[in-house]
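Weekend entry, working from home. Most of the wet-lab plans are on hold until the incubator is repaired, so I used the time to fold the two sequences that have been sitting in the queue since the last round of cloning. Logging both here for the record. First:
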Amino acid sequence: MKTPKSFLQKSEAKAFSADHRRTISFNMGKYDAKVKEGKSQFFDLEKARKLAKNIKWQVMENLPELLLQFEKNFTSRGGQIIWAESAEDALEAIAGIVEKHAAKTVVKSKSMITEEIELNPFLENMGLELLETDLGEYIVQLREEPPYHIVTPAMHLNRTEIAELFHRKFNTAPDATPEEITAFVRRLLRQKFESADIGISGANFLIAETGSVALTENEGNARLATTFPKVHIAIAGIEKVLPKISDLEVFWPLLAAFGTGQQLTVYNSLLSGPRQPDENDGPEAMYVILLDNGRSEILANPEKRQSLYCIRCGSCLNACPVYRTIGGHSYEAPYSGPIGAVIMPMLEGYEKYGHLSGASSLCGACTENCPMNIDLHKMLVYNRRDAVKSGASSAEKMLWKLWKKAMLNRRSMNSPLFLKKLMVNLFFKKAWGPRRDFPDFAAESFNQRWKKGKLS
């Protein structure tokens, strides 16, 4: 169970780690400079953002029809659709595919939705050999830890730490350069691509018009993981659908610019089913698992439906002063940062993740930097409200009731200074934190000064 106490402990450790702050500041600085360059490709960036948001609004208004259209067009080329209401349903379906094809080895391209359903430990418990093929994901897999960031899984590590990891695991040179490590991993992965039974990927977008899975990447590993093995499984949230293939001319540049600062990501693939009789490449069987896992409940909530517009670019994480201070692992959630704080309580319950919405200054930087113009800071406030409704303790409710009563009572506001200090120190000083000086009250309230004519 994730708890506010655990979150605060991890956050404090990261916030006051000089090494962590130094690494993140360096990596975020490079990102900031690159994204500014990437955004410059747009003649009218705000128009592109509005257009993308309008398309996603249309998707949510017609989601059932678009998903059925995608299913029809995908299955017409021999693909198979599996509808999964929950993470457990998705895992059960994957287990069935593994058993059907007697698979022993799996290669996997970068996918946050597989983190959501906890696919890796599930497959490893089945006895399968599982290999992450994105370099960043492979690094954190070797370290036996989850991704640190939606887009850049190993952002929290520097080149020295990575070199030491590969020296320890594979006896490479202890001072190996990034180029040498990349070349080593490339040789290792090539063998795995050629021998794997199943390739697993996520999906950046699903195209209803053509029944295609759109994948975006920079390393080419997803293209290999989805074409070399005999079986390809793509897992996608039901919100990933787009109506037309022409919509990609809006979404691909936005995803590239806001995600990595590129004009266009290096590899953009459209996969429309298994290998056809007249084709040389591709799997013999292709499955798309359409995952709900709480998304229908978000869709039914008019206040928070916008969160389904997210294209997982990570821009809100990079803009958030809280994320940039405490890092991704503090959240203990598949999706971290502002978007994680918004959707995780809705996907997996306020009891488990309700505290995350409090990890925000409500500065609005997340909303300002979202390519989809999602009102993230507003939904964080809604989540705070709902967290209180669903899980506030009796003591907390009583405390805020007393606070409200005191704030609305003129006598309490004008009470002696020593009494105000006593009450606040008694109930709030610990929450204020040991590293901050508690603010002093004025000797007299505004009302008292007004009555005495001291305001002029």
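Second, folded right after the first finished:
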Amino acid sequence: MSKFSAFARSGHWPTLAASFLYFDFCFAIWVLNGAMGPFISETYGLTPAQKGFMVSVPILAGALMRFPLGVLSQYIGRKNAALVEMGLIVLALGFGYLFVDSYDSVLAMGVLLGIAGASFGVALSLGSGWYPPQYKGLAMGIAGAGNSGTVLAVLFAPPLAQAHGWQTVYGLAALTMLLPMAVMLLAAKEPPDREHQSLREHVACLFEKDGWAFSLIYVITFGGFIGLSSVLPTYFHDQFGVTKIQAGQLTMLATLMGSAVRVLGGWISDRVGGVSTLSGVLVLVALTLAACGFAGGSLPVTTLLFMLCFAALGAGNGALFQLVPLRWPLSTAVAGSMIGEVGALGGGFLPNAMGLSKQYTGSYLAGFLAFTALTLVMLALLRVVQRRWTRTWAEKGGRARVGTPAVAARDALYYPAGIRHVG
């Protein structure tokens, strides 16, 4: 309890809470088409490949919008960027309620839902910006637990779609966005870790090897999370013949595990290091994904395996973003947006792979195995790059250490001139 009190006192918890709520509601909107996938597919008689593409469009669009929003946040502030984004989301959902009436317009709506997916880097940087490096992992884990918005989407969207029609859900979702907007406006404060840099300095992480290494690993942890979250309602409905509402409830069980364990992943990484945590996560993801592919005949076994897989993915997301502010202490929003962008692009791979696998082989197995192979490649990459990371800016295992740029930035922000903190 004393450690948690120290954590709470070290930053600004209302901003952290506002960031969590902002990310939570944005995440729910982002995966809305995936949550309503069985309803939309039934309306337009979609093929498996069309289903996979439909749920991947918001993922891909959100990925492409993340980096520009992250750069914008460095100029107008993260709080202001979040408010602008939420206003645009309300307008996008209004379009969905009034004008979506064909498969093509569903795809267009998917692009607009991508606006909500751009929130990632801004939410995490805003929420953790008040906290010193030794608590960054936990702060980012709490803000990042906003991916529990997936739970809201798959829990509430299917019954609402069945009762009122799936287009009406867009209009109802627009009203819900007023809550996080109000909390952000009234409770959040812009963190002090903002540095005025040129555009060239902001985008420098795009040209660094570390940036791409983080991004490729995030293809697995976050790409797997968002990809599976979007495709599972359709998978459960098609593979096991459960109702559309039951498919959403089963998906909720899995995504809830991933969201809850993200905080634990950040907390563990603060203690044993993000690299060590990620190594174990990638092994577990590979094993459970392959097992899910072979367990397609048993609903209970498949559900339990997905819950374990999502728990690993959630912990991996928390672990990776324990490392980001250590590597880029003064441009965390930009670096996080760039990493999140590539990671979310990877999330578009999984729904399409599963849809194509089902359409051309009659089974989802090949799609699962393709992502399993990619996971093992990223594990090998991590084991190679961690040697350099622990020689330059991180302790063994990926813990924060004295003497890194993150520590210098922390000292400048939190302690008087001439006093060096060594905690």
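Plan for Monday: verify the second prediction. Confidence is low (pLDDT under 50) at residues 409-423.
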